[in-house]
Structures are given as structure tokens and as C-alpha cells.
Amino acid sequence: MKTQKKYILAIESSCDDTSAAVLSNDTVLSNVVATQEVHKDYGGVVPELASRAHQQNIIPVVHQALAKANIDKKQLSAIAFTQGPGLMGSLLVGTSFAKSMALGLDIPLISVNHMQAHILSHFIREDNPSMPPFPFLAMTVSGGHTQIVRVNDYFDMKVLGETLDDAVGEAFDKSAKLLGLSYPGGPLIDQHAQKGNPQAFTFPKPKVAGLDFSFSGLKTSILYFLQQKTKEDPGFIETHLADLCAAIQHTIVDILLDKLKLAASQQKITQIAIGGGVAANSLLRKRLKEAEKNWGWTTYIPKFEYCTDNAAMIGIVGYFKLLKQDFAQQNTTVKARFLLNEE
Predict the structure, then answer these.
(1) Cα(109)–Cα(122) distance, rounded to whole angstroms?
(2) Are 180 and 226 in contact (CB under 8 A)?
(3) Which candidate, 133, 137, 199, 258, has a CA 20 to 30 Å from the CA of 237?
(4) How many CB atoms lie within 10 A of CB 55?
(5) Which has the closest alpha carbon to 269: 158, 126, 122, 129?
(6) Around Cβ 67, how many Cβ atoms within 10 Å?
(7) Confidence at residue 78, expressed as pLDDT on a 0 to 100 scale
């Protein structure tokens, strides 16, 4: 018996990307992202500017997503939106739009946890699907989040460890700023690191018990190291940029892999799924492939477009919630902090 097609419009506005996607069941028909360039001038996301840009972008982005999918809004079965975690002003724009549109079309509204969406992005149906079997370990690494989660089912997840301070993407961006690189700095560190020697410099790895992470101490040690070296030689950073990037990247990826290896050993799970913007990092991807050979892991990394913040991942959670008829109400409020499995 054929499953009836359900069309879901998904909206993601948790930080500085305005995104809308249309899914037919678990298949993506369109996934449109409007990136905000304004934050480059400030070296990081400015919340007030982000919410204003979302207000400008949301209507054209939704219109484009529907047009690309060749779907009329009257064909939609539900509207899914990011409830949190994220920036309050940004979340309010997407949530308000989703509520209004769902009310106008008289269709269900579905609230989605952004972190859950990063994990379930692995279940977006592709031509050659490679989906992790339950249970698996998910490591979400992005500009705002770093956590390791045991995933028993679509909606049964347990956080095993998370960052106590900076997220890993933030650690990359702040380190890049110390090196005089523009925002976002993570991809630039990756780019320069290709030409550098990761063993040229050594930075201390923080000693944090269990499966939690900490990156603020690493950033401080890099700051003091650079201050000392540039005092001795004002051109130090410029001369050693590639080696510095390689060493910083090597240290950060080492920290991630050490914790992931510990989690896999403790949980006795070898199915490992990665998500979030930092999943695009070339060294992390390379080390994960090596882990398949060295530690017997099977690793899963979504397409790049589903790693960074995007509405398709919101849509796949929306689809699974639609099957359960797990709908939100018009009085649903946004959550800047939003734990996994929290209602």
C-alpha cells in the first residue's frame, strides 16, 4: 500500500540564516537558505541585526521554496518551525510567520528542536540512502553547540556530554579572529591548515572529566602564545599562519575525537553520526574515515547542505512528528534554551 504524500513547509531561523524547505514525506523538494552577510563587519552574529534580516528575508525565502518545489501553499499538509534553541529575536520571526501561515491555511503547526533536527538530518531520503541504525551516537558540532548524544529512536535521545563553555565552532572562529582572519573563521582555518604542519606548535588540551567539552581554556592559551610570540617577532602570525592554523585545527579535532572514542567505548556503540556546520571540516572528516579502519566504526556525515543550519532538517523532524500527529498550538512559545526530549 502506497504512503499518501504529505507536503511540509519547514522554516528555520534560529541564528543568522533564514531558511525554508518543502518536503514530500521524507524527501526534500527544495531547501532555500538566505545567509546574512552583515555580521562579517562585526566579527560575529549581532542578534538585533539578525532578527531584522530575518524579517526582510522570510517572505522571499518561503516564496522561493514553494516555487522551487512546484507546490502551491494550498497543497501543504503542515508547517514545521524551529522553536529553539537559538537567538530569541531570530526564533520569534520564524515562529510568528509559521503560526500565521498555518492559521491562514488551517493546517497543523509542528514545533521542532533545532538540535534534534541536526541529528535527524541523517534520515532525509536520498538516492543512495545511508542511514544510521538505532542505537547510534550522534556528535553535533556547530557554532553554537557541541554535544554527544545516544540516539535510541527518532524521539528517544540522551545527552551524554556537552560543552561547558564555548562551542567548537566558536572556538574555531575566536581562534581565527586572534590570527586576524575574517568571520566566519572556521572554514579559513581549515583552508590555511592544508598548507601547514600540525606538529609545528603544541597547544594544551583541556582536562575535563567524562564526556563534557571545554574550549575556553584552549582559546586563552592560544591568545597568550600569540601575544608572547608577536612581542618577540611582530610578523610571527603572518609568517607562520599555515602552521598555526594546522596546529589549532589538529588540537580541536583531537579533543572531539578523544571524547567520541570514550563515548563509543562506554556505550559499546560503533555507529557514529556527525552533524552541524563543523562537520564540514576536512580534518574531522578525514579522521572519522580513519576511525572506521582503526576502531571499527561506521560513520555517517550528511551532505554539506544539511550540516549547516537549514530548513530541510527541520522538515524531516516535522515529517516524523506529523506521522505521530504531534502538533504545536498557536500559544507555543520560543525557547532560547531547549533541551533534547524537552516538551
Answers:
(1) 23
(2) no
(3) 258
(4) 17
(5) 158
(6) 13
(7) 98
- Hey, where are the domains in the chain? 7-122+308-324, 130-302
d(CA 338, CA 97): 20
What pLDDT does 331 receive? 94
- Which of the 8 DSSP states describes residue 180? T
Amino acid at residue number 47: P
pTM over 0.90: yes
Q: Across the 343 residues of the chain, what is the mean pLDDT of every consecutive 10-residue run? A: 82 91 97 73 66 86 97 97 94 96 98 95 83 96 91 96 93 95 92 97 94 94 97 97 98 97 98 93 95 95 90 98 96 88 68
Please provide residue 11's backbone torsions phi and psi, each rounded to the nearest 5 degrees. -130, 130
pLDDT score recorded for residue 1: 39
Return the closest-CA partner of residue 148 out of 312, 269, 289.
269
CATH superfamily of 7-122+308-324: ATPase, nucleotide binding domain (3.30.420.40)
CA angle 109, 110, 116 (to 5 degrees): 165
